[in-house]
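Action item from last week, closing it out:
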Amino acid sequence: MPMAIAAAITLPFTTVCRRSLSCSSFSSFRSSSSLFLQSDTHQPLPISAVRKPNSRIFASMSIEAPEKFSPDSFLDRRESGILHFVKYHGLGNDFILVDNRDSVEPKITPDQAVKLCDRNFGIGADGVIFALPGINGTDYTMRIFNSDGSEPEMCGNGVRCFARFIAELENLQGKQSFTVHTGAGLIVPEIQDDGKVRVDMGEPILKASDVPTKLPANKDQSVVRSKLDVDGITWNVTCVSMGNPHCVTFATEASQDLQVDELNLAEIGPKFEHHVMFPARTNTEFVQVLSPKHLKMRVWERGAGATLACGTGACAAVVAAVLEGRAGRSCTVDLPGGPLDIEWREEDNHIYMTGPAEVVFYGSIPL
């Protein structure tokens, strides 16, 4: 069934670019447009919007006079047949956030999510995240549809955006924490005084069959620095699950130290993702060790492709670096979108991720 979309978009106006994430919103502009998205054909979507400098933009821009805008009043709207959303990004990994607290089922389908995530014919995002009622005693439930319509168990950058979204919905101020049910289990994000979000990501899963991977365990029940043939090239890989599967590599057999900027992710990423050794497909992290406390990483995400950041991937990379003796338990991980601070605590075996989450714009879509 065709889905027609008309969107009113309101954007926080800042002077920072996508790689500088410390600035808050000072004022806003408002513009409106009509978008038409058909299920059987791609028609261009004329979008009128103001966006941050250096960020991707769709088509022509028209800017109306500034007017007062309250995010609270926007998020309180409950018109029938209208989907209100807020777009966030965590180090450039961007998501459409939907207030779904009045229902246990997502308000849009996976097919609709694919169309909304399209960067040429839709809003553009790596996924759609839904804030649903909590279950099993948790405060909230988080579900995600990837840009290809698949549903991952969890998303590290997404859960930070989710936490900031909840704080906005509930008008929470200052340091706050809450419990979130996800497909990967219980996740506990905490908003810091500086606005960053620190997330208790739980314990890494290392047992090969639970990652899952068909690679044979070579260290206890884990796969650590094991050989994986990918299209004729032998890679050394370590497999980790953060509730979702990860394959981490620091080197090939021919080259012991990756130069991640030289990799063609579009070519090699899908070969890892769909490798026969990963029955649930896999996220893949290509990691360069700059020092025992500093890693540089590029990622090919299952269901989303090459993204600017992956929180669970950064956690998996630090776990793999520790297991391979390449780094310590507390590291800064540089991603194309910016750095994340990752700590794998020995005391409780939990991984803690700290990083930013920022509003991009507010929008409304008739369904």
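Closing note: The helical segments are 71-75, 110-117, 156-169, 265-273, 311-323.
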